[in-house]
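ping. complex inputs:
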Amino acid sequence: MSDNPDPVLQAVLDAAVSVAQAGRGWILVRTPQAEALEVVAASSVASTELGTTVAVDGSAAGYVASLGQPLAAALRSADQFPNDVASLGGGERPGSVLCVPCEHEDAQIGVLQLVDAAGGTFSFDDVELVTLLSGIAGAAIAARSAATDRVAVPGPAELGASLARLAGVDPAGYRALAPLLAALLADG
Amino acid sequence: MADEPLRPAWTRESSVLRLPGAVTLDDLSPTWAWGGATGAGVRVAIIDSGIEADHPALEGCVEVDRGVAISAGPEDTVLEEVGPHEDDFGHGTACASIIHSLAPEARITSVKVLGKQLGGKAIVFLRGLEWAIEEGFDVINLSLGTNRKQWALAFYEMCDRAYFSNSFLVTAANNVLTPSYPSLYASVASVACHTGSDPYRFHYNPEPPTEFLARGIDVDVAWVGGGRMLSTGNSYAAPHLAGLATLIRSKHPELRPFQLKTVLWATAANVQEAPQAAGRLSRVIRHRTLTTRSSRLQLRTEA
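pong. complex structure:
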């Protein structure tokens, strides 16, 4: 969980809030187990939601991530989409919501969500404009996931401990590895 | 007897195909197509997130015990459970409410293919569509799709199967500019939004693959929890056309899917309202009849 939003995602979200004249917005991504969605960017007035996890069930973001199609709706009761629209943003129930999927390589990997259209409801033009921005967000989310999925390089202490363990349990393997490491360290 | 000429095995004498009567293009008007119809006798399948059958807006039109919930099982299998189930999102209920509002006496069945999990959907969609075809539904509303290309052929073949099985398949065009299956196929009626608010008004789109435009903006729909919502999207345009197709099928059950699509084309508002054009088929026929009756052989051109 990070308190620092990705600058690209933040820029995309801010642009979406601006073009659609929304009150607030978020970008959510699917968690690794694909059973929930996590807020990874939030509009400036709602930054306390970073890292919040939203269930698929009962959420507009989950609906869109599952359906793969945008949702533009004016809400008429307090219990519609209780798990995100009504709970994010300090619990104030918005009057309208616009959610579009963020796609990458034919998969929905996130959702861009806006609430409280200035005119009361989000228009079809808003859907199209925000969808364009969600495409950029999808690419940014995919790039972000690729970066975090890379195997972390161990530090010297950790490497030394692993080598000591290897020497104890597999002396032959250690003997094969030691010259290679020595050569790498000499080059480095 | 002289030897009969050899013919391919699939040829048939055209006399055995004599029809008792046929509809002409001149007959095709909204009044002819669905005037007085209620949807009675037509079974509609909604392949979606489920339906909240006891929603007051649906007035008991849902065949609760005959629905099916399909989900992904292990190793690319699917699990099926026939019987009552809930709507996990509200979308299916919304679509059902639109169809019911247009065709109040049609019986609606839920084919649930969307649940609370986010993965493994295309195989479930496909099986849901196959199940609806096997069950012989007259109209199938599919406001969903997949953009995974590896499923394109499977959906293509399934849509052909629906067509030849006499199930009229209505799909929502993708709201975003990426291919979505099966909305791209000729065997389905693909629908997007127009900007109007009349639920009975729809347009023919001369630029396929989306062939029709129906109401889909700011639609007052039923939603889970017994509520309502004002929502926008092509997925609400599809059930509008499905509802009208249901009315047509209830009044003219003999129509095959391609005939039903022709009727929809002919009764589309922009076709009905189009100025008479030179070469328009019905008027050429009428002119030729008039000139024959008057023994004048010259053909008159359209104004």
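Residues 282-303 of chain B have pLDDT under 50 and may be disordered.
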